[in-house]
Structures are given as C-alpha cells and as structure tokens.
Amino acid sequence: MLAPSRKSILNPLAEISLNTPKTLEALYPAVEPLRILPNVNVIKIGGQSFVDRGREAILPLRAEIGEVCTKHQILIGAGGGTRARHAYSLALDLDLPTGVLAAIGNSTSVQNARILQMVLAEFGGILVMPDSFQSLPMYFRMGCIPIMPGMPPYEYWEKPPEKGRIPPNRTDSGVYLTAECLGAKRCIFVKDEDGLYTDDPKKNASATQIPRISVQELLERNLADLVVEPVVLHNMLNAVNVREIQIINGLKHGQLTRALEGEPVGTIIYVAD
C-alpha cells in the first residue's frame, strides 16, 4: 500500500457509505457522548401561556426566576404564542410551503425572546441567537441567563410533516433539542396547566392529570391533545442525554423552584428502558 499523500486523510469512513447503519455501528459502537453543559437547566416559557397574558403572568414568573437564578444555571427558550398561529394561518391561506411557515414562526419566537430578555435584564438576561450558540459557556460563567428563540433554525429546510403544512419542529422541539445537544441537567416546559392531562382541561372539565408516564405508553395512548409537540416524544426515543422532560404550571408560584430542586411536580415524561 502506498503511503498516503499529504492531501489524504485516513479514516474508517473513507471507503464506506454513510447510509449503512450496521457498518457504522460496528466501526463506532454506541458510547455516551460528552455532556457539554451538564449543570444547565433548559426551560421553555410558552408564548400563549405567558407572553400573550402580559404582566399578570410574566412578572410573578420573573420574580421567581430572579430568586432561583442565583442557585441554578438557567437557559430559557421562548415560545411563539398566538402571533405565530396567526402568521401560520395567513401563510396557509396563501398556500405557502412548510419551510416558509417555519421561517415565519421563527420571527415571533425571536420577538418573544427579546421581550423576555428585557424583562429579565435585571437578573442577567441576555439574548442569544443560534449563531452565538458557542458563547453559552461564557455567558454562564458570567452569571447570565441566556434567552434564545425556541424555534429551531431549520426555517426553509424544515421537513414536511406527514399531514398538512404546519412545521412539526416548533418551539417545544427546538428547546428540547437544545437540551439534548448540551447534555443538560433538566428540560422543563413551563406551561399554564398542571402538566399532561387525558384531554384538554380547558375544554373538558373531567380530564384528569397524568403525573408520570413513559414516552412509549403515551404514544400508545394516542391522546387527542398533547401538552408538548408530538415530535418531542419521538426525538426522546432516539436521545442519549435527556431522556426525561417535566411539564409544570408556571402560573403557580413555586412550581419552577420545586422542579429545579428535583421535585416531581407537574408531569414527568420519561423514556422507559
């Protein structure tokens, strides 16, 4: 065998297809990846749940975040809320494709992230866009609370859904994927409900809360209403770092604090081994 030239890069992937999973598994057996920021708590603040409600919802949550940020590293992802739904409706009326809807949905998430950053500026809130992702360690060292748009930056390259044209990866998905990439300590979804229910509690008074459930069982139940985007559940099945998420009611003061302390408030959805 001739010695490789200086332009050659010897590696086991050079002469195989990257579309052969069995070969790749043999070359690179599954190992636990490096957890980049294992002490960070990734929190999703819903657009409809909080930003759209204004001061009566945001300011009490702001006060609680101001209390807990001295003990916990927090990364916040902002939801899109009602404005995103309005924009989706207009785009669908104009027959625009999924990628355009995803780009439009990202805009409202950015707006809400800016609002939350200003509200939390006193406690170190700082706006972080996807292209500044690598600066997160520095912000945490400085004692900041990074606040990002929850929408993943797929935009025009968003995958078409199985049905319709609404982007399947919205702000819940973006926040969860951020937590998985960072190897975060927790991923908490702050909603305006006490967690997951058997049906929408706002429309069905007889709906009952589910305090703890596996992803597998939840998918089998095929509930008509879910408190998180379905794609999050499917991503959890393939995830390595974050195999559990928690949904809490941020309108109830103290629930976020208890969740950050590891208490099983709200609903916990986990991947069964």
Task: Describe the protein in words.
The termini are far apart. The mean pLDDT is 93. It contains nine helices and ten strands. It has helices at residues 21-27, 55-68, 82-93, 98-119, 136-141, 171-182, 215-221, 230-238, 255-260; strands at 40-45, 73-78, 125-127, 145-149, 186-191, 196-197, 209-210, 212-214, 244-249, 267-270. The protein has one domain (35-270): 3-Layer(aba) Sandwich (Carbamate kinase). Strands 3-4-2-1-5-9-10-8 form an eight-stranded mixed beta sheet. A two-stranded antiparallel ribbon has the order 6-7. Helix 2 links the parallel strand 1 and strand 2. 35% of the residues lie in helices and 16% in strands. The radius of gyration is 20 Å and the shape is globular. The protein is of the alpha/beta class and 273 residues long.
The appropriate CATH architecture is 3-Layer(aba) Sandwich
Structural class assignment: alpha/beta
For the termini, the CA-CA separation is 46 Å
What strand line-up does the widest sheet have?
A: 3-4-2-1-5-9-10-8
Biggest pleated sheet: 8 strands, mixed
Task: Please trace the helix and strand order, writing H or E for each element.
Answer: HEHEHHEHEHEEEEHHEHE
Helix amount, in percent?
25-40%
Number of domains: 1
Rg on CA atoms, Å: 20 Å
Question: Low-confidence runs (pLDDT<50, min 5 residues)?
Answer: none
Question: Quick one: overall form?
Answer: globular
The CATH C-level class name? Alpha Beta
Number of strands: 10
Portion of residues in beta strands equals 15-25%
Going by CATH, the homologous superfamily would be Acetylglutamate kinase-like
